[in-house]
Amino acid sequence: MATDIDFSDARRGAALPAPKGKTRITIYIDDDVLDAFRDRAEAEGRGYQTAINEALRRSIATGASKHEALLARLQDAIAGVLEGVKIMEATKPRTIAKRVPRGRTVSKGIKPKKR
């Protein structure tokens, strides 16, 4: 057995750097969905993973625009409601006398009633 092998110039094998912007994951996809993506990708002459990635991107873009539209509608509705709100002046809280056991009375501030 040779013990004098020089490994100082050796390179590690099978450790390839991952492409930037890509992450390897493991997910479970229904067989019929995967078959549909594979068939479509084969007909278009590209990879099925690329087709899945593009479908996910379209879904994200559509979902984001839906959320933005909903947010804009909610902001408009809130602004419309706030235009009709009359700001009431703060009033000093009324005090009431409350009887407690042992015959003492205690004054306690209460909030004004809504009108």
Secondary-structure map:
Elements: H1 31-44, H2 48-83, E1 95-99, E2 105-109
Number of strands: 2
Termini separation comes to 98 Å
Over all CA atoms, what is the radius of gyration? 35 Å
Strand content: 5-15%
Share of helix, binned? 40-55%
H/E element order: HHEE
Low-pLDDT residue intervals, each spanning 5 or more residues: none
Mean pLDDT equals: 78
Main beta-sheet strand count, sense and barrel state: 2 strands, antiparallel
Shape: elongated
Helix/strand-derived class? mainly alpha
**Spatial sequence of strands, sheet with the most strands:** 1-2
Q: How many distinct helices?
A: 2
Descriptive report:
Pfam families: BrnA_antitoxin (PF14384). This is Cys rich CPXG domain containing protein. InterPro entries: BrnA_antitoxin (IPR025528). The chain has 115 residues and is mainly alpha-helical. The protein has a domain of 79 residues. It is 43% helix and 9% strand. The chain has a two-stranded antiparallel sheet. α1 crosses α2. The termini are far apart. The mean pLDDT is 78.
Record keyword descriptors for this entry.
mainly alpha; two-stranded antiparallel ribbon; 2 helices; 2 strands; 43% helix; Cys rich CPXG domain containing protein; BrnA_antitoxin
In short:
The chain is mainly alpha-helical and 115 residues long.
